[in-house]
Predict the 3D structure of the following.
Amino acid sequence: MNKSLRTLLFATVLGVVCSSLLVGVTQVTRPFREANEKAERVRNTLIALEAPVTARTPAAELLVLFDRDIRLQDQAGIPSFAYHPGGVDHPVAIAVPFGGAGVWGPIEGILALEPDMQTIRGVRFYKQEETPGLGGEIASVAFQDQFKGKRIRAADGQPGVRLVAAGAASGPNTVDAITGATMTSGRVEEMLTTLARRLHNGKEDGQ
Amino acid sequence: MSESTKSSGCCGGCGSGIKCMQIIEDGTLKNNPIIHQVLGVCSALAVTGRVENAIVMGIALIFVAMMSNLIVSLIRNLMPRRIRMVVEVAIIATFVIIFDQLLKAFYWDMSRQLGPYVGLIITNCIVMGRAEAYATQNPPLPAMLDGIANGLGYAVILVLIACFRELLGAGTLLGITILPASHYTPNILMVLAPGAFFTAGFLIWIINAIRQPRAETEETA
C-alpha cells in the first residue's frame, strides 16, 4: 500500500512538473509560432490564387502583397479572399478556406476558384499531420496540382469533388486519390464536398 | 557497455574519476548507435536528404538524449521500478516537445521540412535505450556525457549519409552548388528513400569491415 502510494505520488509530481514545463514553453513561443503559421496561411492562399509567390518568398513581402491585392469577402458565410491584382475592380479569383479532421490531426487548406465559382484555380493543404509518404502526400505539389482546372460540381450538376482510384473513369470533378491513403483521401473528399455544397447552397440562397 | 574492466579512460584532468574519454568513445565509435546497434535508423534514413536537415536533427537528438539522461539519472534512486519506463518516456517526450516548439517558433522552414520526425524522436530507440541502460545506473554527469556522446554518434553518421546523398542527389552541400548542373546530372535516386538505404548500408558495411579485426581481438581478450 505504502509502495503504491509512493508510486502514485511520484507519477503525480512528475506529471505536474512535465506539464508545467510544457505549458511554459508553449506560452513563450506562442507569438512566434502564430506569426509563422499566419505567414504560412498567407503564402498558401497567394499560391492557390496564382499570385506571383513561391515557397521562398520572404514573409514581409507576402504581407505587402496580401494587403495590396487581397480583399476580404464573404462567400456563403465563409470569410474568403478575393484577388484583385493591381487593384482591378472584379476579382480574378476567390480563395475559400476549409478544414476538417484528418487521420492524425486537423487538416486545413485553401481552395481558390475562378470568378465563375465553379472551376478550381488551385488547392493548397497548408496544415496537415497525415502519415508521411502516404496521406502526407496531399501536401505534395503533384497531388495539389491535379485539382487545377477541375470543377466543384459533377457532370450531373451535383456539387462535390471526388477522389477516385487512379485510372478510374474520370469526370469534371474527379482527381486521383492517393494509393495507400484511403482514409486521408476519404476525409479530403468529404471536406471539399462539404465546402462545394455550402458554396452551391449559399449561391442559391443569395440569388 | 562502459562497465569493462579496463582502467584506462579516465583522463585524470578533472580528478572526478569519470571516464570521460571512454564514454565518448563508446557512444561515438565503439558502440555507435547507428553503425553498431542499428538503432534510430528510421529517422536516419528519412531526414538525410539534405545536410542541413541532418545537422538540425542531430542537434535535436543530442539535446534530448543529454537532458533525458541527466534527469533520469538525477531521479534514478527515487524512481519506483515498476513505472520507470513510463517515467522515462514522459521525460523524453517533454524534451522532444520543447525542442519541437522552439523549432516551430524560431526555425519555421526547418520545422516544416523535418515534419513529424522531430516528434518521432520520442520513439527513437537511442534515447530510450541510453536512459534505460545507462542513466538509471550511473551518476548524473557521466549520464549526461553518455547522452551527448550517443547523440553525437548519431549526428555524425546522419551528416555523413546526408553529405553523400545531397552531393550525389542534388549536386549541392548545405545548399551550395558543388557539382554544377552543366557537368553533373543529379541522381534523383539518392534523395529518394532507396538512396538512403544504399548509403546507410554501404556505410555500415565499410565501417564494420575496417573495424572488424579490432573488434574480434577485443572479444577474445
